[in-house]
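User: Here's a structure from my thesis project, written as structure tokens. My advisor, Dr. K., wants to see whether a designed sequence matches the one we expressed. Can you design one independently, without my sequence as a hint?
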């Protein structure tokens, strides 16, 4: 059976994952030819039994072009780039590796908070321009961290923040109430209360129709002018135009974003033009350690699905 690998990070830091699949009789081919757009993947998917994808878009064009495709496995957690209902209609399983990159994402999230609060990237950019300016920043210690989402990554963020001793206020529609009590996290009855109270508002939510543009003109209007928005989750959670307007008009102190609705971030994006919005190219899950863990999980899953007939691993498994 043949596996097409469009993920750039699969087995890069864990070549044993690639070797293990080969030892189990799979033929692997790494995608070459620039960014793996749906059209490019569609042109290569014929005769392929499985896809290992990164933050790629896998839509009806790909599934319609496939003839023997059995599974699409995300090298990571986020599945919003994959048209799961259409995959299901075509009988293709979709799988991911939840939790394997939680520490990597949480660590970068904390780094983004520190960067935003103290303006690290902004001051570095000014200094490179020859400007010696020092703007007072804000400390995470003693602040109120508003956390939207208390899943695997949200809980790990809380653990990493303990040394800073912030007040953590969180909202999750299905909260881990016992864990929150044990870890000193206050639970809010709704998201609006978190927006209003936060000095640092951290997004740790999946992208769904309910959470799309949860950060918008109305919710930004609830926030303190001294507050910062931190998004290491999904770009579609934020209305970019509303965020840019709030920061430009000093209704929000700044933001740090690692995910965008369209990736790579277009050259025309207004996010590139606002000094107090720090942007990074979806780095959160990209650590050598997390990539190695995820690669191992992907290899194990594909062996179980394709050789052992396990279907319950898939997120769209229906008995």
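Assistant: Designed independently from the structure alone:
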């Amino acid at each position: 059976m043949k596996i097409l690998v469009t993920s750039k990070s699969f087995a890069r830091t864990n070549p044993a994952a690639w070797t293990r699949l080969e030892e189990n009789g799979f033929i692997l081919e790494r995608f070459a030819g620039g960014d793996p757009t749906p059209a490019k993947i569609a042109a290569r998917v014929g005769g392929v039994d499985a896809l290992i994808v990164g933050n790629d878009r896998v839509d009806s064009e790909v599934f319609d072009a496939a003839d023997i495709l059995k599974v699409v496995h995300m090298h990571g957690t986020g599945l919003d780039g994959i048209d799961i209902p259409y995959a299901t209609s075509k009988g293709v399983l979709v799988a991911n590796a939840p939790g394997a990159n939680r520490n990597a994402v949480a660590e970068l999230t904390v780094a983004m908070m520190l960067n935003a609060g103290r303006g690290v990237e902004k001051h570095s950019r000014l200094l490179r321009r020859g400007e010696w300016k020092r703007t007072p920043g804000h400390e995470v210690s003693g602040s109120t961290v508003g956390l939207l989402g208390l899943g695997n990554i949200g809980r790990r963020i809380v653990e990493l923040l303990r040394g800073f001793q912030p007040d953590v206020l969180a909202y999750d529609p299905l909260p881990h109430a016992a864990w929150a009590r044990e870890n000193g996290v206050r639970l809010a009855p709704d998201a609006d209360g978190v927006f209003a109270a936060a000095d640092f508002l951290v997004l740790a939510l999946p992208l769904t129709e309910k959470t799309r543009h949860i950060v918008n003109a109305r919710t930004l209007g609830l926030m303190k002018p001294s507050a910062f928005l931190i998004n290491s989750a999904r770009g579609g959670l934020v209305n970019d135009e509303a965020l840019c307007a709030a920061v430009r008009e000093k209704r929000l102190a700044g933001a740090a974003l690692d995910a965008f609705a369209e990736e790579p971030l277009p050259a025309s994006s207004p996010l590139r033009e606002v000094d107090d919005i720090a942007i990074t190219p979806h780095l959160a899950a990209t650590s050598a350690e997390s990539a190695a863990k995820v690669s191992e999980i992907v290899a194990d899953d594909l062996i179980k699905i394709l050789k052992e007939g396990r279907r319950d691993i898939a997120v769209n498994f229906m008995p």
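When you compare it with your expressed construct, this may help: The chain has two domains: 2-98+288-306, 102-279.
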